[in-house]
Amino acid sequence: MAGLPEDIVKLLLAILVGGLIGVERELHHKAAGFRTIILICMGSALFTLISLRTGSEDRIAANVVTGIGFIGGGVILRDAGRITGMTTASTIWLAAALGMGIGGGYYLLSFVATGSAMTILWVFPWIERWVGKTRDRRIYEIVSPIDPKKIGQQEALFRECGLRVHRRKQVKRGDEMVCTWETQGSTEAHDCLVERLLADADVKAFHF
Q1: Whole-angstrom Cα distance, residue 171 to residue 132?
Q2: Sign of CA dihedral 98, 101, 103, 106
Q3: For 207, phi and psi rounded to 5 degrees?
Q4: In whole angstroms, what is the distance from residue 133 CA to residue 35 CA?
Q5: For the residues of 42-57, what is the DSSP string, one character each?
Q6: What are the CA-CA distances from residue 116 to residues 41, 104, 121, 123, 132 (Å)?
Q7: Cα dihedral sign, 97-100-104-105
Q8: Are 208 and 137 in contact (CB under 8 A)?
Q9: 1-46, pLDDT tens digit by residue?
Q10: What phi and psi values does residue 185 have, to the nearest 5 degrees?
Q11: 73/66 Cα distance (integer angstroms)
Q12: Cβ neighbours of residue 92 under 8 Å, at least 6 residues apart?
C-alpha cells in the first residue's frame, strides 16, 4: 500500500483540475459538462496510477488516449454544413491528458497546462468574437432600375463603407436589375451600407 496517500492526493487534484475546466463547459451548456470532465480527468489519473503499479505504462496510456478519442468523437456533430463540438471534444482530450499528467506526478506541467486551458476557454472567446465582427460576411441582393453605371456606383459604395467585395452577380428581371454582392467587413461597415442603401432613391429593394 506504499504511496497510497500520494495517490489519493493525485486523484483529488485531478478532481479539482477537471472541475475547473468542467465549470466553463457547464456554464456554456456544452454536451460534456462539469461532472463529465471531472470523471474523465479523474479516470485518466486512476488509469495512470494503475499502470505505474503494474508496470504497463505504455499499453494502458495508449488505450486511454484511444478511448478518449472515441468519447470526443461522439460530441462532434454536423448540422446544416456546420461542424459543432470541436472545442468540447478538444476539452475532453485535454482533460484526459491533464489527468494522466497528474497521475504520473507531473504537477507543475499539469497546472501550467490547466492555467493555459482556462485562459483559452474564458478569454479567447472574447478575441474570437472581436475578430468575427471584423470579418462579418453578408450577401446583399439589391434591386434597382437597369443602368450599367449603377453597378459601378454600388461597388464604390461598398468600398466607401469599408467593405470588401468577394463576388458579384447581375441579373435582369423585367425592367429591373438585381445585383448580388458577397461582402466582408466589420459590423459598423455593414450598418453604414444599409443606411446608404435606405437613402438611395434608385434602390427599389434590398435584402441580406
Answers
A1: 31
A2: negative
A3: -155, 160
A4: 34
A5: HHHHHHHHHHHHHT-H
A6: 16, 19, 9, 10, 22
A7: positive
A8: no
A9: 456 788 899 999 999 999 999 888 888 777 678 888 999 999 999 9
A10: 175, -170
A11: 11
A12: 32, 36, 37, 40, 68, 71, 72, 75
Whole-angstrom Cα distance, residue 120 to residue 127? 10
**pLDDT at 58 > cutoff 80:** no
In degrees and rounded to multiples of 5, residue 42 shows phi and psi of: -65, -40
Q: What are the phi and psi torsion angles at 173 (to 5°)?
A: -135, 95
Mean pLDDT over the full length of the chain: 85
Q: How many residues does the chain have?
A: 208
- Reference 4, options 50, 60, 57, 59; nearest CA is 50
CATH code for the part of the protein at 136-207: 3.30.70.260
What's the whole-model pTM score? 0.61
Q: For the chain, which residues make up each domain, given as ranges?
A: 4-122, 136-207
Closest CA to 139 of 158, 153, 156, 152: 158
**Pair 193, 140: CB distance under 8 Å:** yes
Instruction: Measure the CA–CA gap between 208 and 201, rounded to whole angstroms.
Output: 18
Instruction: Please count the CA atoms within 13 angstroms of the CA of 131 that sit on its side-chain side.
Output: 5
The closest alpha carbon to 192, from 132, 129, 138, belongs to 138
CA pair distance 192, 80, nearest whole angstrom: 30
| Measured distance CA(136)–CA(13) in Å, rounded | 42
Give the start-end residues of each E strand in the chain.
77-79, 82-84, 136-145, 164-173, 176-185, 205-207
